[in-house]
Amino acid sequence: MFLKLTEPEWGKKFLQFANDFVDKNEFLSKTIPITADIFVFTYPLYLIYLYIYGIFNKDINYKYASLYIFFSGVSSMFVSQMFQFFVIKDRPEDHISSKKNLILEHLPDISFPSDHMTLSIAIATSSLLWGIKRKNKFFINISFLLFIFAFVMGFSRIAGGIHWPTDIIAGFFLGILLPFVLINTKIFNFFKRFIYNPLIKLQEFIFKHIFKIN
Question: Which element (helix H / strand E) includes 191?
């Protein structure tokens, strides 16, 4: 059973406004295709940095942070994909007044919710929650930068004609949900015992016996 969704009129008008606005600006027309995707590629670097920092500073909390943020993003994406399995919603290009204004190309998949927004907000939210829980200003400060990345990317995907506004809004709320679930003490301890610690022990074994790094 599938749920057929359509964009409300305000969403159609906002998308057309954003698309027209960007199309009339040469700089934005060249920038939007970049800002619609590039931030997603920074997240693996961010998580790798956290984990490596934990290794060389012998601070296991940074390893836990990296893994918690990673699994917040992965679980959020899993839920997003489950939504897409039961939801049918067309991409916006047929509603853009001029096909030449279709700034971005995309795979022919479901529009709702936005995977990019879901992942980005999950990474930003989990970083903020970790910083608050551990009283670590680094995570709090970087979370604000990550939220800016997410909002710029969200607007870019609307203006580029690849997502409806409600796709981005749905991704926003979905991305917030899982980090709150996984930061819960009981759930975090479960993941810590059965997932995080085994992964950390595997990494330590590999570094010690293969790379000869203690």
Answer: helix 185-191
